[in-house]
Amino acid sequence: MIESFLVNFGLENPFWLLAAVAAIVVVSVLIGIIFNKLIFPIFLKLFHWLPSNLDARLLGASRWPLTFGVVVLGVYLSVTLLLDLTPSQIHFINSVSNILAIIIGVWVVATVSSEGFRWYIETVAPLTESKLDDQLLPLFRRVVVAVVYALGGLLVLDQLNINISPLIAGLGLGGLAVALALQPTLSNLFAGTYVMTEGVVTPGDYIELESGVAGYVLDVSWRSTRLRTWHNNLVVVPNARFAETIITNYQAPVPAVNVFLTCGVSYDSDLRQVRDISQEVMDELLEHDPNAIKEYGGWFGFDSFGESNVNFWLFVQAINRLASFELRTTLMQNLHQRLREEGIVINYPVRTLQFPKEWGLEGHLELVRQKPGDRTTGNIPGAESPADPPDPASA
Length: 395
Known about the structure:
The protein has helices spanning 2-8, 14-47, 54-61, 63-82, 87-124, 132-159, 165-181, 183-198, 239-242, 271-288, 321-341, 361-369; strands at 206-209, 214-220, 224-229, 234-238, 247-249, 257-265, 299-305, 310-318.
């Protein structure tokens, strides 16, 4: 087509044919630039009128792939429509065009998917109460992009007439070998997914494991959970072990912590007076101490007759775990002070020891009154008869 057009102007030289094709390619590039710089911003402004900026961000992510597609389309049309090509040349150009089309399509899908995940992470995730999406979506975003590029690579190989069936089988066996080699890591990874989706612990919670390790949760990552102990040390627990152990979460189901205090008074005490004093101490504490939850109230009850005291308990609730320590301390101080002021005794542990009669004073006097020759040990265990003094005459 273009050759007959050039012959009419006396430009039958092949140089002019190549120059015309190059000019059309340059025009295609200029059209792509115009599309990128002028036409595309107009579409973006139209999408910005929508309530959500998701459409505008997805369109913006496809800006450069679409621009590259416009240039490729112009070059393809200029070559196939304007030049008289042989069937083999047309087949080669079609193969190259198919590969470029696959690359552009994969590029569009990968960038649009990545931008969609990024929009959710930046816009929606901060508004949700759960931190699960903040941790899961970045990983899903990378996995989705990697899968799209991997599928695109397989399609490109198929266009190059490379049999991908052995490659897929090899990837399956290789993936199995890698999975076996990375079994501990994968175990921690899936356990981390379980820990984060279950929502049992969150950063800031104070927990205690079955092994006795206790501390504040600093971070729950894919591989491990990090705790800061009471001694301000860092403990890293693999998620595989963390998911299998028994966990006590002191922040759940609510931050409030019950304070249970036991005490005992002498058997000579007036138990009704003890009850009234304990209730007054708890009422005063609930009224003035900011660490106590007034609505929960204070509870009192006698527990048992102990060895030295009549035991009882006091029960109040603190706003959180740290406040429970202060509340328990104040409750003990106030209760001890009131009991001393009222003359109520908290006995020390007392034990009564009973010995055999022979070990007492009467047994000792009876032993002294016996004649020296008739002295015996009585019933005293382990005692022996004293030896007779030597005879001076036999010396």
